Structures are given as structure tokens and as C-alpha cells.
TrEMBL record:
Subcellular localization: Cell membrane
Name of the protein: Membrane protein involved in the export of O-antigen and teichoic acid
Signal peptide location: none
Organism: Epibacterium ulvae
TM stretches of this protein: 21-46, 52-69, 89-111, 123-144, 153-173, 179-203, 299-325, 337-354, 366-385, 391-408, 429-447, 453-472
Length: 491
């Protein structure tokens, strides 16, 4: 029964991960067909700081609630009136006030000193309700997660997203432009907050207790730090691209970033979720150490799963985006998306090694990898801002690989692995994908240019060929990864 419950939690957790990380992106793409690239860019700029700051609540406060050790009274757990939860609630509201103040100042500065469309700062002001809603719901949602009510969270997320998306899609079709997405963000946050409070049945039992709030602040800050730095890369690029290249450039980057979010939800978010408990169990058996063979096996599996997703997106980006968001918007976004997908190998490496480091109590190294990516990205962003959106995106990709190589040399020795050995484990599946998809890329160009095939017809022919070619090349070029995946599926 316990194993069945664990599997149920795992399945619903995967559903939840995709709903959170992929659902919003899918809704965005559905509405993008009815918006201009400038309207998409206006929303992307306005939402960037809001989305970045939500890490304080969705990671810092929520995770702090999960790890709180409940007080005991008369040999029974006191679940809902623990003063630690009330302290965390007021910390969440303090964070919301700070975020709202900073976004308000940013909106005022943007309206006064920037020549960008005035709708951007108006959108930012309208979305001040979002961090407040996140603050209200962070403790109740943390309690739901602490009590392993994963199914309830997943169903709530799906229901709220569907309802908000229906209203937003109607607004987009009625010509409300980027404001349709603003309303989606607001409705999604507010309805999720109300549902979380209702499902958890929790509300603070008292006012702010400064001593207790100070006691929980270091842990909350430490948890939030890595997420803020990691999310800061894309948020900074999104906002900077808008300032440097206008709303059209911001729109192209926003579309590419949202599709990239879907790709992560499809292949890396489930992997991150599944490998951590496996690594933790192996660490317990190994007295705090993790076998290098297990890490290497996870790297090969992650490579074989992620390589066709990222490389395949480069192959079919043009016809798929043309069908989904229209030719005009696709023409701006495709080059940026294709460059952004080149970061797949680096992200896959980080996904596995970060979880492995967490399992052995060395999560700080994973944090410094994120810091390194941010610093190098900022250094490269200056010159690339003088060139194009594609140059800025390429700078981020270069930064990701530079920090990855440093990360490999600093972490693989912990697991008794050579950096080249770890890199090769992931690189072989990506090499297989390049060999499989390279000729198909030129075939696609030929049939569309010379034979004038439609995008739909091209995809019907190209995608089955791509799947067959990747299966064949991966068995030849990455046999270890292929056998590891097959072995895992047969268990």
C-alpha cells in the first residue's frame, strides 16, 4: 500500500510539475496567435520582474513551511496552529510588500525615463496584485505539500489554469492584446491563492512576531537565494532586450523563453524530481557518499531523453511555430528559439549534478554554478546588446557552457568521476541527435522551398523520420545511454 501511495504521489507530482512549468507556457502560445509581436513583448517586459520575484514565495516561504518540524502536544502533532507557520506568513507578506514597492518604483522609472510603450508600466502596476496573492497563499500551499496532498495541488493548478485561460483567450480574441495575458496572470494568481487557503483550511492565528520572523529569515533567504539568481538570468535578459531592441525584440525573446519552459517541463523537470529521492537513498546506504557509477548512469539517461527534445525543437521550430502562433510572430521568434535550445546539454548536466550534490549535502556548489552563469551572461550582454536579440541569446548560451565546464571540474571529483567522462556521457546522445537531425534539416528546407510543401505536411513526413533516425543513431553512437534507458523502462 505504501509503495502504491508513493507511485501515486510520483505520478501526480509529474502532472503538477508540467502544469506549473509547461501549462502557463502552453496557454501563452495559444493566446500568442491573436497578438502582435509588440503586444507579446510588452507583456514579457512587464511580467519579467513579477515572475522573477515569485521565487521568494514559491520557493523560499513554501519550502520553509515544508521543512518546519511541527510541535508536539500531548503526544499529538499540532498541525495548523504552530506559531512558526504564522511567522512565515508574515514574512511572506513582508516579502510581498517589498516586491510591490520595487516593482512600483521600476514602473515609475520606466514611464518617466524610457521611450518604451506606456502600456508596459501600466501592466506592471496592474500586476502588483500577483505578489500579494502569492504571499497570502504561500503558507497554505506549503502545508498542502507538507501533508503530501499532491493530487489536490495538481487538480487545483489544472482547474485554475483552464478557467483563467478560457477568460484570457476570449479577451485576446476580442482584441485586448497583451492585457489578455495580464488578466491571465492576475486571475491565475488570485484563484490559486483562494483555492490553496480553502484546501489547507489555514489562516494565521495572530499578528507579526518579529522574534520568530527573524528566526526563520536566514533559512528562507538561503532557500530563495539560488532561485533568485537562477531566475534572474532570464528576467534580466527579457527586460534588457526590451530596452535595447524595443517591444518586437522583447516579444521574440518572450516566445522563445516560453517554449523553452515547455521543453524543460517535458524532459528535465520530471528527471529532477525522480533522481533526487533515488540519489538520497543511495547516499543513505553509502554513509553519505554517492557512487560515481550511479551519477554517470543518470547523466546518460538525462542525455538520451533531453537530446531529441532540444535538438528536435531546432529542427521543427519554424513549421511548428508558424502553425501555432502565425507566420509573422514565428519569423521573429524562430532564430532566438533555435539558439536558446543549444543550451540543452548544459542544462541537462546541471539538472543531474545539482541533485547529486544536494543528496550529499554540497548544494552550495550548485548555487555557485548559477552565480557563474549570471555573471558571465552579464559580462557578455553588454557587447551583444549592440548587435541583436540573437547575439544576446548566444551570449547566454556561451555563459551556460563556460560555467558548466568550471562546474564539472569542481564537482565530478566528489563522485570519483573525470570531467571528460561525465561530459561524454551526456555529449554522446547529443551527437547522435545531431547526426540524425542534420540531414533532415536540409531535407525540410528543400521540400518547403522547391516542392512548396505546407508546414503541416512537412511535419507529418519529417517527425516520424526524425524519431526513427534518432533511435538508430543513439543505438550506434550512445549504446550505453540507450541500454540504460531501456533497462529503466523495463523495471
Amino acid at each position: 500500500m505504501a509503495e502504491k501511495t508513493l507511485k501515486s504521489h510520483a505520478i501526480w507530482s509529474v502532472v503538477l510539475q508540467f502544469s506549473r512549468f509547461g501549462g502557463n507556457a502552453l496557454v501563452f502560445l495559444a493566446m500568442a496567435r491573436f497578438l502582435t509581436i509588440e503586444q507579446i513583448g510588452a507583456f514579457g517586459m512587464a511580467y519579467a520582474p513579477v515572475r522573477w520575484a515569485q521565487v521568494l514565495h514559491k520557493s523560499g516561504i513554501l519550502s520553509s513551511v515544508v521543512v518546519v518540524v511541527r510541535r508536539k502536544k500531548d503526544n499529538a502533532e499540532v498541525e495548523q496552529d504552530d506559531p512558526a507557520f504564522t511567522a512565515l506568513f508574515w514574512l511572506a507578506m513582508l516579502a510581498s510588500a517589498l516586491v510591490c514597492g520595487l516593482i512600483f518604483l521600476l514602473a515609475l522609472g520606466l514611464g518617466r525615463f524610457s521611450s518604451i510603450d506606456a502600456s508596459v508600466d501600466d501592466m506592471m502596476l496592474a500586476m502588483l496584485i500577483v505578489p500579494i496573492a502569492f504571499g497570502v497563499s504561500s503558507v497554505p500551499e506549503g502545508l498542502l505539500q507538507k501533508n503530501m496532498q499532491v493530487k489536490a495541488i495538481a487538480l487545483r493548478t489544472l482547474a485554475v489554469q483552464l478557467g483563467s485561460a478560457a477568460v484570457a483567450l476570449v479577451l485576446a480574441m476580442q482584441g485586448y492584446g497583451g492585457w489578455a495575458m495580464v488578466w491571465f496572470a492576475i486571475m491565475n494568481a488570485v484563484l490559486s491563492s483562494v483555492a490553496s487557503v480553502f484546501l489547507a483550511g489555514w489562516w494565521p492565528k495572530g499578528g507579526p512576531d518579529l522574534a520568530r520572523m527573524r528566526a526563520h529569515l536566514p533559512q528562507m533567504s538561503a532557500i530563495s537565494g539560488r532561485g533568485l539568481v537562477a531566475g534572474g538570468v532570464h528576467a534580466l535578459l527579457q527586460f534588457s532586450v526590451g530596452l535595447a531592441f524595443g517591444l518586437a525584440g522583447a516579444g521574440a525573446f518572450q516566445i522563445a523563453q516560453r517554449i523553452h519552459q515547455i521543453l524543460d517541463a517535458l524532459c528535465l523537470a520530471p528527471v529532477r524530481f525522480l533522481v533526487l529521492p533515488l540519489f538520497s537513498k543511495a547516499t543513505e546506504k553509502g554513509d553519505g557518499t554517492l557512487p560515481g557509477a550511479m551519477v554517470l548512469r543518470a547523466l546518460t539517461i538525462a542525455g538520451l531523453i533531453s537530446a531529441p527534445v532540444y535538438c528536435g525543437t531546432i529542427l521543427v521550430a519554424a513549421p511548428v511555430l508558424t502553425l501555432v502562433i502565425g507566420a509573422e510572430n514565428a519569423s521573429h521568434a524562430v532564430p532566438t528559439l533555435q539558439i536558446l535550445c543549444c543550451v540543452g546539454l548544459s542544462l541537462s548536466t546541471g539538472a543531474i549534478l545539482s541533485q547529486a550534490l544536494t543528496a550529499v549535502g554540497r548544494a552550495g556548489l550548485a548555487f555557485w554554478r548559477v552565480v557563474g552563469t549570471l555573471v558571465i551572461t552579464v559580462l557578455l550582454a553588454g557587447p551583444s546588446m549592440l548587435v541583436s536579440v540573437e547575439a544576446v541569446t548566444l551570449g547566454y548560451v556561451i555563459a551556460a557552457y563556460a560555467s558548466m565546464w568550471i562546474f564539472l571540474h569542481r564537482t565530478t571529483q566528489i563522485f570519483d568521476l573525470a570531467p571528460r567522462q561525465a561530459f561524454t556521457a551526456l555529449a554522446r546522445p547529443y551527437l547522435a541527435a545531431l547526426i540524425a537531425f542534420g540531414p533532415l534539416f536540409w531535407l525540410q528546407h528543400i521540400v518547403q522551398t522547391n516542392l512548396h510543401w505546407s508546414d503541416a505536411m512537412t511535419l507529418v513526413v519529417i517527425m516520424p523520420l526524425a524519431v526513427a533516425a534518432y533511435v538508430l543513431t543513439s543505438r550506434l553512437v550512445a549504446p550505453t545511454a540507450f541500454s540504460n534507458v531501456i533497462g529503466s523502462l523495463n523495471r
